[in-house]
């Protein structure tokens, strides 16, 4: 995972930001898909899924929606890259719970903080290892 | 026989079970993976007894969740 770069279009950033704001006060969540070339991952599609926990401090993706999204990714020739979720009241970094429930070392875990409503912060992490799991920030590039 | 696993066609032995496929595919933390065969969700207690058939399509879906506390 050396110098991992993840690219995202501004329109996709705004799509998840709009959805996350519409889900307040609860956490919002979804999936990301795209392409992988060496250490560069490029997001080509973002998916807005239901937080089945309907909570402001926890999220779980709906497995049926997850399957539908994965099939759509395959149909578009994209690969699953990971997921995203919002932190309505806390910073853009993996909580202990985020790390505990991160089971895919190949996935990117994007966290959108809405702690300051007018200054949203999005970061992307890889979470690896076991006991303890560690997180490492990816270089996120948001393009026009 | 041939099946499709996570979008990729693979040759596997006849009578392979879902649990055997999980092992051969080196699925990480399988206890947190939901398996679908032809879009049907396989209950965790049926994984060892579900035998795959030629042409099946299998997906491994990681449980995805977390929380902003702690």
Show the helix and strand layout:
The complex is a heterodimer of chains A (144) and B (70).
Chain A: E1 5-9, H1 10-23, E2 29-37, E3 40-49, E4 59-60, H2 63-75, E5 79-87, H3 96-100, E6 108-113, E7 121-128, E8 134-137, E9 139-143
Parallel strand pairs in A: 1-3, 1-9, 5-6
Antiparallel strand pairs in A: 2-3, 2-5, 6-7, 7-8
Chain B: E1 2-5, E2 8-11, H1 18-24, E3 33-37, E4 40-42, E5 57-62, E6 65-66
Parallel strand pairs in B: 1-5
Antiparallel strand pairs in B: 1-2, 3-4, 3-5
Quick structural overview:
Chain A has 144 residues and is an alpha/beta fold. Chain A contains three helices and nine strands; from the N terminus they run βαβββαβαββββ.
Structure description:
The complex is a heterodimer of chains A (144) and B (70). Helix content of chain A is 22%, strand content 40%. Chain A is of the alpha/beta class and 144 residues long. The two termini of chain A are 26 Å apart. The mean pLDDT of chain A is 95. By secondary structure, chain B is mainly β. Chain B has one domain: Ubiquitin-like (UB roll). Helices cover 10% and strands 34% of the residues of chain B. In chain B, strands 2-1-5-3-4 form a five-stranded mixed beta sheet, with no helix packed on it. In chain B, a hairpin with a 2-residue loop joins strand 3 and strand 4. The longest helix of chain B is centred in the first third of the chain and has 7 residues. Chain B is elongated, with a radius of gyration of 13 Å. The chains are: A alpha/beta (144), B mainly beta (70). At the A-B interface, strand 4, helix 2, strand 5 and helix 3 of A face strand 3, strand 5 and strand 6 of B.
């Amino acid at each position: 995972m050396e110098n991992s770069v993840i690219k995202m279009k501004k329109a996709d950033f705004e799509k998840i930001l709009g959805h996350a704001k519409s889900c307040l006060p609860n956490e919002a969540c979804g999936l990301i898909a795209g392409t992988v070339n060496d250490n560069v991952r490029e997001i080509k599609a973002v998916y807005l899924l239901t937080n089945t926990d309907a909570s402001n401090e926890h999220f779980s993706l709906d497995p049926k929606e997850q399957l539908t999204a994965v099939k759509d990714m395959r149909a578009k020739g994209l690969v699953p890259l990971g997921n995203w979720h919002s932190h309505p009241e806390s910073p853009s970094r993996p909580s202990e719970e985020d790390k505990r429930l991160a089971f895919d070392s190949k996935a990117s875990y994007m966290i959108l903080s809405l702690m300051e409503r007018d200054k949203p912060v999005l970061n992307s992490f890889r979470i690896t290892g076991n006991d303890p799991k560690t997180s490492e920030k990816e270089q996120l590039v948001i393009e026009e | 026989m041939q099946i499709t696993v996570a979008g990729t066609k693979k040759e596997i032995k006849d009578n392979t079970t879902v649990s055997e496929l999980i092992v051969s595919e080196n699925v990480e933390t399988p206890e947190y993976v939901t398996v679908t065969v032809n879009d049907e969700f396989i209950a965790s207690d049926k994984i060892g007894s579900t035998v795959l058939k030629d042409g099946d399509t299998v997906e491994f879906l990681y449980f995805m969740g977390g929380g902003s506390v702690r």
